Amino acid sequence: PGVPRHTNRLINEKSPYLLQHAHNPVDWYPWGQEAFDKAKTENKLIFLSVGYSTCHWCHVMEEESFKSKEIGEIMNEHFVCIKVDREERPDVDKVYMTFVQATSGGGGWPMSVWLTPDLKPFAGGTYFPPEDGVHRVGFRTVLLRIAEQWKENKDALLESSQRILVALQHTSEIRVQGQESPPPAKEVMDTCFQQLSRSYDEDYGGFSKSPKFPTPVNLNFLFTYWALHRTTPEGARALQMALHTLKMMAHGGIHDHIGQGFHRYSTDQHWHVPHFEKMLYDQGQLAAVYSKAFQISGDEFFADVVRDILLYVSRDLSDQAGGFYSAEDADSYPTTTSGEKREGAFCVWAAEELRALLPDPVEAATEGTTLADVFMHHYGVEEAGNVDPMKDPHQELKGKNVLIARSSLELTAARFGLEPGQLSALLQECQQRLSSARALRPRPHLDTKMLAAWNGLMISGFAQAGAALAEQGYVSRAAEAAAFLRKHLFDPSSGRLLRSCYRGKDNSVEQSAVPIQGFLEDYVFVIQALFDLYEASLEQGWLEWALHLQHMQDKLFWDPKGFAYFSTEAGDPSLLLRLKDDQDGAEPTPNSVTVTNLLRAACYSGHMEWVEKAGKILAAFSERLQKIPITLPEMVRATAVFHHTLKQVVICGDPQGEDTKEMLHCVRSVFSPNKVLMVTDGDSAGFLYSQLPFLASLERKDGKATAYICSNFTCSLPVTSVQELRGMLSP
Questions:
Q1: Helix, strand or coil for residue 680?
Q2: pLDDT at 682
Q3: CATH number given to 10-172
Q4: Out of 146, 193, 291, 564, which residue is the most buried by the measure of CB atoms under 10 Å away?
Q5: Looking at residue 540, what is its pLDDT?
């Protein structure tokens, strides 16, 4: 490429998404005072465009509209244009997405919103095609109509924007009504289970027809429901729903069978054709949920999926300083000479390509069988491609195959006269060859922004996997990432988290000129990660930091009037609403996760006001939890933990002693949703002793590692047998 024709202010930003738009003919501004002042001084409307760097339709709108000189001129003449990376500024995104969803009934990215000079929204949508079509108004037309309205009917627009804002403030408020208390766990759990059960796909797993998202929050809820109803038919069904969904996802095209890890979601019912971007928050949550599936079932299949996800993240999403990158794009150039990117190009295969790469005859199989025959049969490859044209509106996948395990190992082995073990080895060889071939293709864009919240989710994934699979290497990787957060995304002078940092030149880690302060989700997911990391590593320093951050979260975000936490701090005049999210989606909402965090924090510190706060959050969301709990499965799960009281599992023993290790292995291998683990080794100067004086009275029995199960700081009789301990751990 030659010298770019245009360069705008975004060239000075760090966000990969903003940098992607730095050479548009649009005079983009980042979100900030300079743009707001310009809009006021020139009395111009603001056009706000929000997206993220791995968003397919964001790329499409940029290609069609933001790179167009003519559309750029219209935008620059009539509007002050602001670009926002929703992953950097979820606060701005949520305010205006609340407006778009309320006024259009839908939402998504790219988000396009028109604001008055004082930032109040009055019109909005998502993707617009550049020109008018049969069913849609084009972007150019919308721009000109809105500019005309501002000229002709300015007062009416201002009045309408004020009315909209008042309505949004009213409808988005979540607060305790009167004397509400936390809703009863049994009813809320049962209703949530019934609602999920009704939406469950019996054939393919998952909870909708299409599109299908992994939604780990649903699976975590089902595991907890099973743990509390083990002996009932409902409990058995909950477990079956979760494990079947996880198996079907792992077999599906949403799982990258060659490059590991999971794509963002499936466009069809069968988990077959995905949107190909890979997000860090999915890898973190899925590593944790597949670890729980392994704990519960003992089936190595699930442990292998965990290893697969963590291999992908270690190899492709890891910064050398220890942090984790945000995402990999869906679109890439099919070959090194291609002029335009295509969705999925890095991941899909033509049948003839596979035949050329896997021509070897298979000695042990029926005569004439090649590696390609076996591989193509197992992964559903078809000569003309296996993608339904209905799922490929732009014909980007025509003639290509998205790999999906169509058959069990046993059936494929039987078909070719092989043993399952032989087949496994052959498929592994094929995967290695295809991986080498794929490495020669141009890679998709990598978003090297590092976010505190998503790093928190990934640290939990590594820590929980390390504990459940007894893999010390995973625990060490989690600790390395936590140390990265402490160094690059924490300000020791203020005691506060920062939202983001970036891979700079020469692989250094860079920060924006004005760092973005952490949001509620950053605190909540990092605190959860530090608790998970303590339980996996027993390093008390992580516990100490978690409790410090919990105090800071209370100070910055707690709503003393209506209860629960706001997503953002007070005092930013550019944010029109302080919101509380009320839906567990691709990521759990922070208030859902923080209920369990607060209960864990109370167990480790003895601060009972944290238990009280947890109850107040449940009270604030009580109506929603009782009517449509399916929208908050993680908070429903937390309701059960709140009412069942967490068990403090205390092991007295030398952490390096074999008897202590056996007990730890027992605790970590049992799925118990309402326990916290701590180890005391007689070091009375330790942090835990300073927080929990009752620990001083617990000691080893007969010189052996000894376990106590405590509830509200009252402990059971000592236990030295692993079998006995296992029995006491079930909820």
A1: strand
A2: 66
A3: 3.40.30.10
A4: 291
A5: 94
